[in-house]
Design a protein that fits this description.
- The complex is a heterotrimer of chains A (231), B (291) and C (311).
- Chain A has 231 residues and is of the alpha+beta class.
- Chain A is 19% helix and 43% strand.
- In chain A, strands 4-3-1-12-11-10-9-8-7-6 form a ten-stranded antiparallel beta sheet.
- Chain B is mostly helical and 291 residues long.
- In chain B, helix 7 runs antiparallel to helix 8 (166-191) and helix 8 crosses helix 9 (198-216).
- Chain B has one domain.
- Chain B has a two-stranded antiparallel ribbon.
- Chain C is of the alpha/beta class and 311 residues long.
- Chain C is built from eleven helices and 14 strands.
- In chain C, strand 12 and strand 13 form a beta hairpin.
- Classes of the chains: A alpha+beta (231), B mainly alpha (291), C alpha/beta (311).
- Chain A binds chain B through residues 49-60, 74, 76, 78-85, 87-88, 154-155, 181-182, 184-188, 190-197, 201-202, 205, and chain B through 47, 50-51, 53-61, 73, 77, 147-148, 150, 152-162, 164, 215-216, 218, 226, 232, 235, 238, 242-243, 245, 248-251, 253.
Chain lengths: 231, 291, 311
């Protein structure tokens, strides 16, 4: 969660120094931001699926809590979950906050059938973990369809959002989180295994992108959440 | 046969040595449990050091199921030594004590006597495992609670859903029973050849140690014989804790990744058991009792 | 009297070593049959074969009129045995040991029967003590109680007095006599001590290096007036033929190396010489040897090998 806090602080700080030359882009970002600002807090139930080549995990139930401006918590309904470092900070709060970054218009792209505007956000300082953030925004509906975030420490994460019933609040029904997973290996001496894993399995386990997919069902928006939840 | 079995069990459970094994297991498990209870976080951090660099693992890893897995992993290498203590003593111990000749002058068939002895050592082995299950699994579940089972294998990580774990332990313990009975059979077989208990006990331990080293070493020349060593198959109980995934990499609850490995290993172990026990019974029928 | 035990041409070889060689004997009902021979003579091997502990290489054993190996269980049900050291389960009590072996002998004795049995061997007050606290003599007595608990009709005791003090030896001796006299049991007892066997055995078999030396009653074998005479003649084969057709035929014991042995009283030595001369046989050697007792003492002392008789 430390990382999450870092995200928030960095983003908020950057927001004040918005670049004038990117006025148009900034306006768009602000619109999206305002839309998301309708949400003071929410809780949502969801199912989380971890799809990483070298991790076999069952689908688990999760519950997420968000409170403006930067409180976020992902809680499992029992069970053990594995998330890429930094991945736990996926939420509307830090996704859109663009303070202290230089926003650059990078053209258009289609995400599925949706036409999106690509906006690259560069952090102004050197001591940020985030090197570059790219947002794909559906201008018509003011929804972030995809974001790519490169970090110094934890590689590059890619997030795709699918919207449904809660699109009016800018809240996704499904978040697909992709990242480059490092290879995993533990010495057999520690795991006390005798047999070698065959080459086909080894290849299967290598060089794949990891994915975490969270499908949200019931959102409860602006019902008020006590701060104690986030502790 | 029933009378023989009861008598053999009676003898086993009147021997102080028998309780030594139960005490040793209790102590070993208690040490692991206390250690993990006090410093479990450090232990998991150590094992997961590399993994934790890229991933945040959330949840109660250090739960009863995980503790039991650690216990089984450590114990099933050492329990054979405790089994050898009794099984390798079954015939040789009586030869050494001089009771074998008295026993065999009784109007009982040798096959019945030796079969009862073998079955008694099997029951002893099973009781040791039940004791391990009680302490290692149930006490751990009670003390540490339950949650998903997080296992780090050499090339991947498996998270078994809490509701999907228990039957896997049942299977693993059944398989471990088969593996330990193999050890008992080996000890029993070797006990036929000696007139003192130390020899067969040490021989059984040596065979297990040497075979385990051969099974562990990843050297091509040993890899040829590995599939035939029973020690290679003794750890197949771990296969119960790996499940199949579908094309979307979703866990299939209630599945086993390589059921054929379990079947194959079971057959190899069964063949060893039949070979060792059958050999001992056949030889014993014709044995001249000179002790 | 009927034979309880009939052993015919019994042979046991361990690889190249012949432990028992073509041994035949019979034990009659009510006998206290003494097995006498030095250590390694083959006594234990023979007794173990009679208890199915060792499989014979050749020969037959019939006990109670049945082939031992065909009716093993039925026969063993009627046998009680103590083989060498009376080893029992040291971690069990005297009572538990007795109960355990009674069950294995096919009987379910009551507590009273077991206590009576322990009383008989003088261990009733130690019934609950583990055997590891027992002296050698107490273990031996417990061993005998175990041998008797199922009321067998034939009792085999292999070196029952080994390691016992004089009192212990006397106790065992009295017990054997009591079993024979009062309980009409047939007893086979082996020992390497002549005087021990002499005092209790009704019949004695002396074996050496797996061969039968002589068999008979104590009176017959240890009569001091009887002498063994070693004979060598100009024609031993003829001498044996002539003697076999004479009154000497029952005394004749031809030796393997061609020498002839004859058992007779000292006064008969000149008569024997005259007989041979009358038969035109030149006497080269006619030497009185020892009495059987001397023979046995020499055998057991290992001073001189006297040669072996064939039956």
């Amino acid at each position: 969660m430390k990382l999450f806090r870092l995200f928030i602080v960095v983003f908020l700080f950057a927001f004040i120094n918005i670049n004038v030359s990117a006025q148009e882009v900034n306006t768009l970002v602000m619109k999206v931001k305002n839309k998301l600002d309708q949400v003071n807090d929410y809780t949502a139930e969801g199912k989380m699926k971890t799809d990483i080549a070298f991790i076999k995990a069952p689908i688990g139930g999760v519950k997420v809590f968000y409170k403006k401006p930067n409180k976020f918590k992902l809680q499992r309904n029992g069970g053990i979950s594995v998330l890429p470092k930094g991945g736990v900070s996926i939420n509307i709060g830090n996704m859109i906050v663009t303070t202290g970054f230089t926003a650059i218009d990078a053209g258009f792209a289609d995400i599925g059938k949706v036409k999106t505007r690509i906006i690259k956000l560069l952090p102004n300082g050197d001591n940020n973990d985030i090197i570059l953030s790219t947002l794909y925004i559906d201008e018509a509906n003011l929804l972030i369809m995809k974001s790519i975030t490169s970090t110094r420490e934890n590689g590059t994460y890619e997030m795709e959002m699918r919207y449904g019933k809660f699109a009016e609040y800018g809240l996704p029904d499904k978040v697909l989180f992709s990242f480059n997973a490092k290879d995993y290996k533990l010495p057999k001496g520690i795991t006390l295994e005798f047999e070698d894993v065959d080459q086909a399995t080894k290849d299967k386990l290598k060089g794949k992108k990891g994915r975490v997919e969270i499908s949200y069902s019931a959102y409860e928006i602006n019902k008020g959440i006590a701060d104690s939840v986030f502790k | 046969m029933w009378v023989h079995l009861r008598i053999e069990l009676y003898k086993i459970f009147r021997k102080p040595r028998t309780y030594l094994a139960f005490a040793a297991i209790t102590a070993l498990i208690a040490v692991i449990q206390i250690g993990l209870f006090v410093d479990g976080k450090e232990y998991t951090e150590f094992v997961m050091a590399d993994f934790a660099n890229s991933f945040a693992v959330d949840g109660k890893i250090l739960n009863g199921y995980f503790i039991c897995y650690v216990i089984l992993q450590l114990l099933l290498i050492h329990v054979p030594l405790l089994i050898a203590l009794i099984a390798a003593d079954m015939i040789s111990g009586e030869a050494n004590m001089g009771t074998l000749r008295l026993l065999l002058t009784k109007p009982q068939s040798r096959t019945a006597i030796v079969t009862a002895k073998f079955l008694a050592s099997v029951i002893y082995t099973l009781m040791l495992l039940i004791w391990i299950a009680i302490l290692g699994l149930f006490v751990s579940m009670l003390v540490f609670g339950t949650d998903d089972l997080f296992i780090m294998k050499s090339s991947y990580v498996v998270i078994v859903k809490e509701s999907d774990v228990f039957w896997r332990y049942a299977g693993a313990f059944c398989f471990a029973a088969l593996a330990m009975v193999t050890v008992a059979s080996l000890g029993f077989f070797l006990s036929f050849f000696a007139e003192n208990s130390i020899g067969p006990i040490v021989a059984t331990m040596s065979v297990i140690i040497v075979c385990t080293i051969l099974s562990t070493m990843n050297i091509p020349i040993f890899n040829i014989i590995k599939p035939y060593l029973f020690t290679t198959h003794m750890i197949t109980w771990k296969e119960f804790f790996d499940f199949k995934v579908n094309d979307a990499n979703e866990a299939i609850v209630g599945s086993i990744q390589y059921p054929e490995k379990i079947i194959h290993s079971s057959i190899v172990l069964l063949v060893h058991i039949i070979g060792f026990a059958g050999g001992a019974i056949l030889l014993f029928r014709k044995k001249d009792i000179l002790s | 009297m009927s034979s309880i035990v009939q052993v015919n041409h019994l042979t046991k070889q361990f690889n190249q070593f012949t432990a028992v060689n073509n041994l035949s004997f019979s034990v009659e009902k009510g006998d206290v049959y003494g097995f006498l021979g030095q250590n390694g003579a083959g006594k234990s091997t023979t007794i173990r074969m009679m208890l199915t502990l060792i499989t014979p290489t050749d020969g037959q054993i019939e006990i109670f009129g049945y082939d031992l190996y065909k009716h093993r269980r039925e026969i063993l049900q009627q046998i009680g045995a103590v083989i060498e050291k009376p080893d029992v389960y040291k971690y069990l009590s005297a009572y538990e040991n007795l109960l355990l072996f009674a069950r294995l002998s096919g009987v379910k004795p009551t507590r009273q029967i077991i206590m009576d049995q322990l009383e008989m061997v003088g261990l009733a007050d130690r019934a609950k003590d583990t055997v590891k606290t027992f002296s050698q003599g107490m273990k031996q007595r417990l061993g005998i109680a175990i041998a008797l608990v199922h009321n067998p009709s034939l009792i085999m005791l292999d070196e029952p007095t080994n390691g016992l003090d004089p009192q212990g030896i006397a106790d065992i001796r009295n017990l054997i006599l009591q079993l024979s006299r009062d309980h009409k049991k047939t007893v086979i007892v082996s020992s390497h001590l002549l005087n021990e066997i002499e005092q209790i055995a009704t019949r004695i078999l002396i074996i050496d290096k797996g061969h039968k030396l002589v068999e008979g009653t104590a009176e017959e074998l240890f009569d001091s007036s009887q002498t063994i005479v070693q004979l060598n003649t100009t024609n031993n084969q003829m001498a044996v033929e002539k003697l076999a057709n004479s009154n000497w035929k029952n005394n004749l014991k031809p030796m393997r190396d061609g020498h002839i042995l004859i058992q007779l009283d000292q006064e008969s030595i000149p008569v024997l010489n005259q007989f041979l001369v009358d038969q035109q046989i030149g006497v080269l050697l006619l030497q009185p040897r020892h009495s059987l007792e001397d023979y046995f003492l020499q055998i057991t002392a290992g001073k001189q090998h006297v040669g072996t008789f064939t039956n």
